């Protein structure tokens, strides 16, 4: 059976937003920069996952090369879409096989936090960017409650000898300022940087989700599903209220995601 860990087939492409924490987030940071890339240009979607962004980019008229580690998983996701033009699908953990080619855009959504040495990948990406080319990427904020929990879980797991699936856990934890400095040290210019997923929404979701996950086995003994509790305490109405509070406050440095546009 093919594992489909990061299934986003039915979500919107991260080029325009995401549906998470029972909130429909939308942004324009990437779309604005897409407008200056000619249709038909070569685009690289690295860490393509469920091919959600690859499908959106082909629909927009770009020639897409989608890269991720497992060929069978990529082909499984490929079958879920109707393609206006076929993407090139490459199963690889890095970009060595694409050396010598040039791309006007490289996307790397939720990628760098999973890598032991993201600087190596960024160096490869820089070589593949055409003149004036850009990278769109999203990375988490280590100050968010989810990331704090992920880091504790990862550290405890390592201390106890647990083996994590390759590429699954978050192993890079940086603040917005630290991510910006990291990209600049790797030779990129930060063209634009925004934050998304508000602190109140994100923190409340984590406070419900994390304990629910820890108590899953206990809840099953009482025929209670964790999802029922999450829906009751963090349903659309509750999260819409928290989202409205987020939009009226100035705590963006604590938001859950960084959205970056980089130029080589």
Task: Describe the structure concisely.
This protein is α/β, with parallel strands linked by helices and 264 residues long. The protein has ten helices and nine strands.
Q: What does this 3D model show about the protein?
A:
The structure is a single chain. With 264 residues, this protein is α/β, with parallel strands linked by helices. 38% of the residues lie in helices and 22% in strands. The protein has helices at 29-34, 52-59, 71-78, 118-128, 145-159, 176-185, 199-214, 216-221, 226-233, 236-247; strands spanning 17-20, 23-26, 42-46, 63-68, 88-91, 103-109, 129-140, 189-196, 257-263. The strands form two sheets. The chain has a seven-stranded mixed sheet with strand order 5-4-3-6-7-9-8, with helices on both faces. β1 (17-20) and β2 form a beta hairpin. α7 (199-214) runs antiparallel to α9 and α7 (199-214) packs antiparallel against α10.
Q: Describe the biggest sheet?
A: 7 strands, mixed
- The CATH topology of the domain at 17-142 and 165-198 and 252-263 is Rossmann fold
User: What count of helical segments does DSSP give?
Assistant: 10
Record the strand order, biggest sheet.
5-4-3-6-7-9-8
Give the SSE order as H and E letters: EEHEHEHEEHEHHEHHHHE
- Overall geometry: globular
CATH level 1 name of the domain at 17-142 and 165-198 and 252-263: Alpha Beta
Task: Give the terminus-to-terminus CA distance.
Answer: 40 Å
